[in-house]
Amino acid sequence: MRATAVILGAGHSGLAMSRCLSERSIDHVVLERGEVANSWKTERWESLRLLTPSWQSRLPGHAYQGPDPDGFMTMPEVIQFIESYARLISAPIEVNTTVTSVRRSDHGYEVATDRGTWECRAVVVATGSCNIPHVPAVAEAFPATIRSLTPMDYRGPAQLDEGGVLIVGASATGVQLAREIQASGRPVTLAVGEHVRLPRTYRGRDIQWWMDAVGLLDTRYDEVDDLVRARHVPSPQLVGTAERLTLDLNALAAMGVSLVGRLVDVRGSIALFSGSLKNVCALADLKMGRLLRMLDEWAAATGRADEVGPAGSHAPTHIAASPQLELDLASGAIRTVVWATGYRPDYSWLDVPVLDRKGRLRHQGGVVDSPGMYLLGDTFLRRRKSSFIHGAGDDANDLGSHLAAYLGAS
Fold first, then answer.
1. Strands, DSSP E only, in 38-87?
2. Helix, coil or strand: residue 304
3. CATH 3.50.50.60 occupies which residues in the chain?
4. How far apart are CA 132 and CA 308, in angstroms?
5. Which fold, 5-131+345-409?
6. What is the pLDDT of residues 209-260, one digit of tens each?
7. Which fold, 134-339?
8. DSSP assignment of 234-266
């Protein structure tokens, strides 16, 4: 089987690229291991909503048209949005097709699957960067009596044993799960490391409205001083709810969630936590304050201060004078641990020497270090918004142009 280009993955990024290649009359096929929007269907917990408001959900030639543009789409709504886009653009998708290897060939690339092999001149990797949960090595020291889960395993509180839950990680996933599980009556202890604190709304507007209006989301990868750092900033502590709830550590503590520092070790049955919790939270407060002052300055400088509410302040994160530093895992107080410690991509099928020592693709703005290979959907790929649904269009258009030029020159 032959195609000029093969796109791996039929999520929003892969479909955006399919649209861009179709507009350039480049024949291609989209290979998907499951169904369209597969990860949204199979790897998300039941109550999850997008962290971005619905008006921000847009792809090339397609945008949210529902009744609640300021709301946050549920997983079924996200799936419907992506599926309807696939139909709209008539994407040439081969579903239930698992890629087993990609390797260089005399004419470009050979993409082997469990349903045959494709020959192509270009490959677009749009398989996502959250394929495998990252579980730290310290997890092996936990007693076998404590059930261990990742966010990919978790569907809802009902699947958990009664009793306490330790959640490791306090970025977007960690704080959302802490809120839901604590509300179910299971006491939660949240281990907090470096994090990004943000209000859901500021001066009467959603924080994503501000980020979009100021242009922060359009910051390019070649405009930042430390790109490696920018690509590893934790996801902000946000949640999408009808109440437009700000979900920070203060809100969780008010619910009864116990806050401890970063999990650093387990010795015997004793879990040890960092004593730097106050400093970590103070740094997150400081960075949020700088951002909000920048937003105030932008509103004043652009004459838009009257369009929004008055400037406000946020209470600093309150941490107990002596945060808990140890937890006896043999006491029975903790029955489950949830590892909200991030994800990593899975490139086990890639037989091209383009991975760095951490197993990530070497690329410049999505142009991989192998002629004719491209990456889409990764964090801060070409812009700060690259990993969001609304970031896929601009990135796909840029890389589609590069791909077309490569085909014309090769």
1. 58-59, 62-63
2. coil
3. 5-131+345-409, 134-339
4. 41
5. FAD/NAD(P)-binding domain (3.50.50)
6. 999 999 999 999 999 999 999 999 999 999 999 999 999 999 999 999 999 9
7. FAD/NAD(P)-binding domain (3.50.50)
8. PPEE----TT-----HHHHHHHTPEEE--EEEE
